[in-house]
Amino acid sequence: LNAAAATVGEALAALLPEAERKRLPAHGHSDGPPPFLIIESDNDIVLALPWELLRLEGVFSVREGRLDIARCVPNPHGGSLTPPTEPVRVYVNVCAPEGDGLATLNYEKESYRISRALHAHRGVRVNEMGELNDLLGVVCGQQPPTIVHFSGHGNQGVRCCEDDRGGPQRVPVQNLIAAMRHTGVQRLPRLFYLSSCHGQSPAGDGGEQGVSSTAARLHQEGIPHVVAHFGPVFDALATDAEEAFYSAVAKGKATHEAVRAARSALAKPFRPHHGLATTEKSQTPFAWALLVLYHRGENHPLGTPIPAHLANTPGAPVRRRDVELHAGGRTKILRQGFIGRRRQLHNLRRRLRVGHNRLVVQGLGGFGKSVFC
User: Fold this and answer.
1) pLDDT at 121
2) Where is 288: in which H helix or E strand?
3) Would you call 262 helix, strand, or coil by DSSP?
4) Which one of 113, 146, 207, 278 has the lowest number of neighbouring Cβ atoms within 10 Å?
5) 3-state DSSP call for residue 186?
6) Residue 244 above 80 pLDDT?
7) CB within 8 Å of 225: residues ≥ 6 apart
8) Which one has a higher pLDDT value, 164 or 113?
9) DSSP codes joined into one string, 130-180
10) pLDDT at 346 over 80
11) What is the pLDDT of residue 233?
12) Is the pLDDT of residue 332 over 70?
């Protein structure tokens, strides 16, 4: 695998102009941050190449921290970043539908670690319902978020939202973009983070010309920064990368610097949340090269630094509080984390939609009834 990747990386380097092949390694050894290379093209084949494997001076330059790299789809009318005047506003849209052969996502831990990485910033909003209308209501609202973090399942050119029963609703990216336009978006997000599989994978329908991956289309339609994964990704590994990314954002770092931190996390062994019987740490070869960035415009940070109200140690155990509930032998004892109620929330929303407005919510003290309502 290493030999094959090295061959690909050297072939990619051969595509660069000779002057660039000499200039990039020189700047990679200079004092200060590494050079930032942006591959601009509207050709889907060019965008789909694994540029992160670029090999210069016999090493993978991105892995060694000697190069930052991004893609760009030309759009002179697309959005761009301006110098920030306030911290970022982050909307975490969790889509974890049940059934249809979909794997269960550990969204509670992911949402908590993102919030903690951003120091419990009040500009962070988490929506656990996952319906398309929820996303549209926020993106097209009066105070649109700086960052939309889409957490869920995906395939080539398709995001998986939820229907009103918590089941899967597959939304092609062109339909998502059209829905935002029809709803009336005042300003598109400055960053769309696709924490799902196949965000950078081409749609592969065989007859379409131009950009076809979810990430490329979102970027082409005007979103200045998009982060996505090639192919499938473990949710545990993706969460490690997100925590590193948002920790950098909280410090006021530029997007490509935050992506560099995320790639560093992807290169480390991780402990799968579930799905594997072993508790040993695993490692995905070249995971650092599977995270891509689309970038347009000036290289400003997404927001000003966020005051560190909470001590954040990346990788620390998620422990919100210790609770013990005693109400009979069948009641579970909650010692850490959140209580997920996605099925009950969808059921409540369906009842309200059909006019069943008198409902009783009961439970033990401190169980979360107020938050649920």
Assistant:
1) 87
2) none
3) helix
4) 207
5) coil
6) yes
7) 81, 190, 191, 192, 219, 255, 293, 294, 295, 296, 302
8) 113
9) -BHHHHHHHHTSSS--SEEEEESEEETTEEEEE-TTS-EEEEEHHHHHHHH
10) yes
11) 87
12) no
